[in-house]
Amino acid sequence: MNGSLLLLPFWLIRFGLLSILSKDAIRRAAHFPPMFGNEILAYWIYQVSNAAIFVYLCFLKVTIEISWQFYTGLVFYIFGLILCTITMINFAFSSNEGLNRNGLYHFSRNPMYLSYFIYFIGCTLLTRSWILFGIVLIFQIASHWIILSEERWCIDKFGEEYKKYMKKVRRYI
């Protein structure tokens, strides 16, 4: 099976489901906060590595077989898609003031990034690609810098409310 088929459910969830649930959520998901210094470089690394993941997956194969790597990859892949679906639903329906504490956002400030990472690790295991694994790690490190800039923006926008949220809810898990 071609690795590009692994992308179809992700795109349907990430873009299709979100556009059905809320046009405003699509706009919010595409928003990146103002970035400074190393965050600008991280933003470009994030974008390039994200594109590299999608393109490289198109050249990889998934061999369906009885092995720990295949089944572990399948579990990560499916779990990542389930988390992504729940996150998109939670993200689509934020509170009136815009601060999202619904569903998974009650347990993680960044469940969307977390679901992407789990999903991409599943893709890595299913394709058995060390190169893809390296690109995913680069993507995740760059994502952390994006998250830091988003947190700064949220503090500016939501003030003390967001600081309380930060104390109560972990960044990842």
Description:
The chain is an all-alpha fold and 173 residues long. The protein has a single domain (3-26, 36-168), classed as Four Helix Bundle (Hemerythrin (Met), subunit A). It is 71% helix and 0% strand. It is built from 7 helices and no strands. The protein has helices at 7-21, 23-30, 38-57, 68-92, 111-127, 130-158, 160-168. Helix 1 (7-21) packs across helix 2 and helix 3 (38-57) packs across helix 6. The longest helix has 29 residues, at 130-158. The chain is globular. It starts with 6 loop residues before the first helix and ends in a 5-residue tail after the last helix.
Q: What is the helix content?
A: over 70%
Mean pLDDT: 94
Q: Could you tell me the number of beta strands?
A: 0
Share in β-strands? under 5%
Query: What is the radius of gyration?
Result: 17 Å
Secondary-structure-based class equals mainly alpha
**Number of DSSP helical runs:** 7
Low-confidence stretches: none
What do we call the CATH topology?
Four Helix Bundle (Hemerythrin (Met), subunit A)
What would CATH call the architecture? Up-down Bundle
Largest sheet: none
Q: From N to C, what is the helix and strand string?
A: HHHHHHH
The 3D shape can be described as globular
Summed up, the domain count is: 1
CATH class: Mainly Alpha
